[in-house]
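If your schedule permits, I should be very grateful for your opinion on a structural question. I have a record of one protein: its chain in single-letter code and its fold written as discrete structure tokens. Kindly check, if you would, that the fold set down in the tokens agrees with what the sequence suggests. I remain grateful for any guidance, and I place the record below:

***
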Amino acid sequence: MIRLVGRRLVATVPTLFGVLVVAFLLLNVAPGDPVAAMVGERADAATIARLRAELHLDDPLPVQFGHYVWGAVRGDFGRSYITQRPIARDLEERFPKTVQLALAAMAFAALAGITLGVLSAIRPGGAMDRVAMLLSYVGVSFPVYWVGLLLILLFAVMLRWLPPSGSGGLAYLLLPALTLGMRSVAFLARMTRAAMLEVLSSDFIRTARAKGLSEAAVIMRHGFRNALIPVITVLGLDTGSYLTGSILTETIFGWPGLGRYVLSAIEKRDLPAIQGSILFMSLVFVLVNLVTDLVYANADPRIAYD
């Protein structure tokens, strides 16, 4: 396991470097001038020229890239063009909010989706199976922003039970977590159902039943654990995407997380903020995938670390 972790961490270096190169080139060939966004249209030419020189925007692209790589290696992502705050400090403030939202959404999705999938697989074709599959199809079909707006209309505007936006206590977290996790509920329900149906038709399940084990023990102890691998894959991928910023959900609900921060940086063409956020999100996603691979072996001992 230690060798696997070491190899994966070493492999992240060229991956992150590639992300850094692509993000740098795409942002620097995109139209628009970040200095104009900083100072506005009424600034004089001398002020614009001075700022471009201070920010090294007049240097050749290889020189600009070298400055940025050297800073990133030292953990310095630079300062925001707009707020003049260190990017690392902005990420430090925004990322915990994204983690809070992601964990709440994933807990809801795992509990609801896996439960629906297991209940559907116990009696395929039954009433619970039809209801669960209907809910999963609805969850997959509806866009995230549409679900969010519906929840705001119902629970915030009509019933006045929950606040429509902002951050604070549990009340502010419920609607964005439900919106973000709804799509994962659908995928997890369908994935769990398919995996459970395949496992429950296996020979070792028939043997377990022939030995006189209770149906609950057969399903949970023998069936569910062997069906976990595809479920863990979905959980890992969705958790990684949630942690790297759910732009639509955070924007709809005014949640001060990483996704909203990136969207604001893109709108203002704040290049250091965009580049630092992309590099940080890539690192988080790689680490989540590594944790997912390690969880595989705990779920199924037949999986080796080779």
